[in-house]
Specification:
single chain; about 260 residues; alpha/beta; seven-stranded parallel sheet; 9 helices; about 45% helix
């Protein structure tokens, strides 16, 4: 089991991807600090997995740093931090309000920066006793690479995550901290339900993906688990597309 005897902090643990990831970590024999904004959802997941949980607003950089320190104290080690916090805003720029723009940046980019900053302060080697580096995994999006209409705010925020990955990976490689990201396509979660719950919208979205289907939380969680695995220690500064081919492929139209 690749994550046996490891310890991680997952921000946005109560979301569709975050909860699937936490289940995989625990199934592998690892430990995880569950973090999110919904106390009731966290409590339910914590009871299911038998893992500690903390309420946090990941947009608040200092809160995330304090939480990482708490996870290190709780487990005696911290091998990885994953940011699964995110939002969805499908609007062109001219009808996107300034408040919506700021919210998109804070939820998708500031939370990613907070995860990197916290990791750099708690996981670098040499550091506190038992600290020997680790893995940071952030969430980008195919929208940052594919040029999708009506995604301006989200695409900009998620493109910022890519820049953050590259710079932070260079900054902390010598300290043993790897920084990578996953860039999903449309995944069936509660966040995207308004899209895939509509038969027409779901069919249109499926047609954009070369594989002909939407993603499932397990598709993304598998990729994150691999990036957390110590055996992936030679992988840093990468943004892995897990998107059914949406960002890079132009499939042939189906023929009758």
């Amino acid at each position: 089991m690749p994550l046996a005897d490891t310890a991680h902090l997952v921000l946005g643990a109560n979301g569709g991807i975050g909860s699937e990831l936490c289940r995989r970590i625990v199934a592998d024999g690892g430990r995880v600090m569950l973090a999110g904004r919904s106390e009731s959802a966290l409590s339910t997941l914590a009871g299911e997995l038998g893992q500690p949980a903390r309420v946090v607003d990941a947009r608040q950089v200092e809160q995330v740093e304090q939480l990482a320190s708490a996870a290190l104290e709780e487990f005696g080690r911290l091998d990885g931090i994953v940011n699964c916090v995110g939002s969805l805003l499908l609007k062109p720029a001219h009808v996107t309000s300034v408040d919506e723009w700021q919210a998109a940046l804070e939820t998708n980019l500031t939370t990613a920066f907070a995860a990197v900053r916290a990791a750099a302060r708690t996981m670098r080697k040499p550091g506190p006793a038992g600290v020997s580096g680790g893995s940071v995994v952030l969430m980008s999006s195919c929208a940052a690479r594919a040029g999708l209409a009506n995604h301006e705010a989200i695409a900009a925020a998620k493109a910022g995550v890519i820049g953050l990955v590259l710079s932070a990976a260079a900054s902390y490689a010598s300290a043993g901290v790897r920084v990578n990201a996953v860039a999903p396509g449309l995944v069936r979660t509660g966040l995207t339900e308004k899209i895939w719950s509509s038969e027409t919208a779901a069919a249109a979205s499926e047609a954009l993906h070369a594989t002909g289907r939407l993603g499932e939380p397990a598709d993304i969680a598998r990729a994150i688990t691999w990036l957390l695995d110590p055996e992936a220690s030679w992988v840093t500064g990468e943004v892995i597309s897990v998107d059914g081919g949406l960002a890079h492929l132009h499939p042939q139209p189906k023929r009758g």
